[in-house]
Every structure is written in C-alpha cells, then in structure tokens.
Amino acid sequence: MLISDIPRFQSTLAADGYVLERNIDRDILLGIAASLGPVKTDPRHPQQMRLIKPQTMADAEPNTLSSRYGMDAFPFHTDAAHWQIPPNYVLLYCVEVGSGNRPTYLIDSKSFWLTQMELSLLCNAVWRSGHLNPFLCTVTCPSDSGFSIRYDPGCMSPRSPRGVKAANLLETKLNNAQCRKIEWQSGDLLIINNWRVLHARGPAERADADRVIARILIGGSNGCLGF
Amino acid sequence: MGAWDSDQLWLKAKAYIDKANEVEHGDPHFPFWSSLALELLTRAALTYIHPVLNADPREDSNLLYACGFEIKQPRSLPAHSVYLRLEKTVKGFGKAQRELCDFLALLRNQELHSADLPFDNLKESKWLPRFYEVCMILCNSMEKELEDFLGNEVADAARKLINTLAKETEGTVKNSIAAHAKVFAEKKPDDQSSLQSNAKAALLKLPDHSKREVCPACGTLGLLTGQLIKSLPAIYFDDRLWTDQEYLATEFECLACELNLKTVEEIIYAGIEPRFTLQTETSLHDLYEPDFDYEYDNM
Fold it and tell me: Does B4 reach chain A within 8 Å, measured CB to CB?
C-alpha cells in the first residue's frame, strides 16, 4: 500500500467504520495516521506508536484491561474511554501474530438498530468514567452521523438506575450484534473508527506473550476539561 | 479542571435526579435529592451562558479559573446569587422560579446543617409542580428537553404537574367545590346521610389504580383514580413479594355530592395530593406453583 492509496481506504473507513489492509510497510504507519488526524499519546506511554503484548495480571499496569483479564479475552470496548474525548481512530498493526493465533473482534454500533427510545436512554443515562480523575459521561452522544459511542466496562460504570438500564440494553445489543472476526497476519493494518466500532481481543489457543501489535491513537483529548 | 463545565454539571444533576426518582415520592429523600439536583442544574444553565457567571467575584482568582487558568480551590457563587443571575439571564426564569429555588435551598441547608427534618412531611403540592417547571425552563435554556433530564416516563407526569400552574383552572375548581358544598349542605340531613352511606357502600371494593380520598366539598370519601408512573423494586416479606406502585391522580369523583375533578390540575387545586402509592402483593406460591390442570383426555 502506498500513501496514494489513503483516499481509497478512508472511504472504506467512512462506509464500514473500519478498514483492514494486508502487507503494509511499518514505516508508513505514522504517515497514514497523520492523514486521519493528530496522533495522541497516553501520559503513561508518550511514544506515538506503542507496542502492546498480552500480559499476565501480575505484570500488567494497574487500571488496565490486562490487570483485570490478564492473558484472557477482553470485552468489547472503546479504546481510551477514560479520556475526556476518546481517540477518533485507533490504528492497530500486526508486528507478530504470536503463537496463540489470537483474533480481534469488531462490532459496528450502527448494527444495533437502536429505536428512538433506546437511543434517548443511551444518550441520557449517566455513567462514570476513569479511575484517578473520574468524570461523568454518557455512552452515546448525538452526532452528524447519528451517534458516537464510548464504552469500556473496565473503566466505566453506571452512575444511576437509568445507567443500569442503559448497561443492560448495551449488553443485549452486544450479545445480539453481528461480529466481524479479524484473523491477524504479520503486516496487517486495521484502522477502527473508535467512536463507532467497538473492538475486543479474542482468546488465544495458548499463552501468547509473543503476540505484538503496534497501536497508534488518533484524535480525541486526554487533557482536562476546558471551557 | 472541569468543576464548572456546563456538560459535567448537567450530567451530575441528572445523576442526582435519577437518585431522587429511585425512591418513593413520599420519602423525604425524594425532595432532598431533587434539591441537590436543582442546584447543579441551575449552575449548569449559568455556566452554559459562560463559566465566569459561576465565579465568586470577591476573588480575582475565581474569575481566572472560570477563564481556563489552573487555580486551586476556586470558589463558586453562592446559590442565592446563582438564582438572581438566572432571573436576569434566562428567559422564563422569574421571581416565582427564583423563590422556589431559594425555598428548596433553604430546606437543603436546614437538612444538612441542623438536626431538623425539613423534608419530612413536605407536601408535593407545595413544591413539585413549580420544581418541574423550573427544570423545564433551565433545560430549554440549554437547548435540551425535560425528557433529557427526567427520562420519558417521569417527564410525562411532570408536564402534567406543570400544567397545574395555570391560574385560571384554580378559580374554576374553587368555584365548583363551593357550589357542590352549598348544594350538599342545603339537602335534608336524612338525604345527606343516605347519600353518604350509599357512597361508602359503592366504594367497599375499589376499581384498579384507585384509592379513597376525602371529598373537598362534602367530606365524604370519594374515588381517586390514577395513572401508573412507576413500580418500585419488589420487597420480599412474609413469603410474599410486595411492590409499591406510584400513581399520578387523574380523576376524582364523589358519589355523594357528585363533585367530579377530571384532570390532575383540578385535583391539585382542590387540595388533594396529586400522587399516591398503592401496594400490591404476590404470593410466591402463586408465582412459581401455578394451579395444576388435568390434561384433556376425552373420557
């Protein structure tokens, strides 16, 4: 893939909420990322492209999905849902498939087919997000394309009875939604619209600390709320 | 810091009003949580115009914080001043609305700073219709709907209560009550007793969603019918599941003097509490062991 192919995959990304490209040269990842928006970093990991590997609970940093699930599968989530504005896009690049052949799963929130009442509940029920600097949020927000979604059971919890109703609704939608399975090959590039598509790390056939994914976060804001 | 961020204040106000709606309406926590939600909602509306309006002007640093500078422990405007500012800035928020906010703030302070129990025995008719009206005005000022704040079910009942604030209904209801009281008083004592005992007998068994209520015109027990607002979580006691169901009164009828109030607005102006709770019970045996029926065998 060349930089000149960017408009093509951007249109797939806009239509499907994600795009998967094979045999991508790692050197052009930051260029592709820059074409989608500003690259953002987590204060704990200031590098623009971060290599992530399955970790045991003992090795994982606190308040991460790995610290809760270890080498197991992760639930469907939005990346960096604890940011004030989560990254708009997440770019995942397979450096090493790993011995566990661990897939990634995607669910497009557009496939929830929410009724007006359901959307109203999700847009209004209050949740808490974050651990060290918690703040209040909703799971969905109205947007030009319908709604955007923020969901991570690892760092978000319902704050009210309406939030509990919203959580139950979301779980039902996730259980019934059609799911796309990504079986990784080295050199694969997966770009996810993080405001639309939830992703989950699948289970591994065996412990796979040798699985390496490069991750770049694009857009969003992890800073303080501004006026 | 987002302490004065309008969106965050709005979300916190919603979390608090959800807490209020979680409890039974006669519970003093209902007005208590509602009063806390209201203060947050007023500040959300004020900071929606500009966060600097929420700053206590006695210290420059508070103004700087409102402009986005990092200041430790900024002081916000006292609640009473928030309401005064809303009166000057938000369309529809006038003296009556400010007085309701001040009234609830006073009760809240009494609750938090003293051993008094100001929310106990607080009649809903005294504050709830105006409270919902204030919420609606503030929501609209932020380009939101009452449903966004209260949820669809509660907002529906709230809108009906807001309608009670229309003054003309009050006069009509008062006149009707006075007229029915006069006609009833002019009847012979024997006729009065007969009408009252017939009315009592007719209400020995109540229809669904209703309760007995004293008639404001003749004092006989009449029939108050309601519409279900919500069911509270069931409580298990004595081998049974008990559920409290909250109703919004929709009609009152006196079978003795024939006073008939057809809307919640009329019911409120007649001095009858607009919401009531009915308790239902379910036997666990009935729930899990339905009666056994023999299969049809054509014998």
Answer: yes
Which of A40, A192, A20, A38 has the alpha carbon at shortest distance from A109?
A: A192
| Type of residue at B110 | Q
Which of A194, A63, A221, A149 lies closest to B2, judged by CA?
A: A221
List the structure tokens of A66. Answer: 């790995």
d(CA B14, nearest CA chain A) in Å: 7
CA B295/CA B297 separation, integer angstroms: 6
CB B125 within 8 A of CB B268: yes
| Tens place of pLDDT per residue across chain A (227 aa) | 666 777 888 889 999 999 999 999 999 999 999 999 999 998 778 899 999 999 888 888 887 888 888 888 999 999 999 999 999 999 999 999 999 999 999 999 999 999 999 999 999 999 999 888 889 999 999 998 889 999 999 999 998 888 999 999 999 999 999 999 999 999 999 999 999 999 999 999 998 999 999 999 999 998 644 33
H or E element, residue B200: helix B189-202
Q: Closest approach of chain A CAs to the CA of B52, in angstroms? A: 10
A65 contacts A154 by C-beta, under 8 angstroms: yes
Q: What is the DSSP string of B103-160?
A: HHHHHHHHHHHSS--TTTT--HHHHHHHHHHHHHHHHHHTT--HHHHH-HHHHHHHHH
Give the ipTM.
0.70
Alpha-carbon gap, residue A190 to A101, rounded angstroms: 16
* CB atoms B18 and A227 under 8 Å: no
Q: A117: which chain B residues are within 8 Å (Cβ-Cβ)? A: 152
CB contact under 8 A, A160 and B19: yes
B24 lies within 8 A of chain A by CB: no
Task: Supply the pTM of this predicted model.
Answer: 0.72
Q: Rounded to an integer, what distance in angstroms lies between the CA atom of residue B29 and that of residue B246?
A: 16
Please state, in angstroms and as integers, the Cα–Cα distance from residue B202 to each residue in A65, A199, B253, B267, following that order.
65, 63, 12, 21
Task: Say if strands A104-108 and A197-201 run parallel, antiparallel, or are unpaired.
Answer: antiparallel
Q: Which amino acid type is present at position A79?
A: D
Nearest CA in chain B to A159: B15
Q: What count of Cα atoms within 13 Å lies in the side-chain half-sphere of residue A1?
A: 23
Residue B43 in contact with partner chain A when CB distance is under 8 A: no
User: Which amino acid, B218?
Assistant: C
- Cβ within 8 Å, pair A159-B15: yes
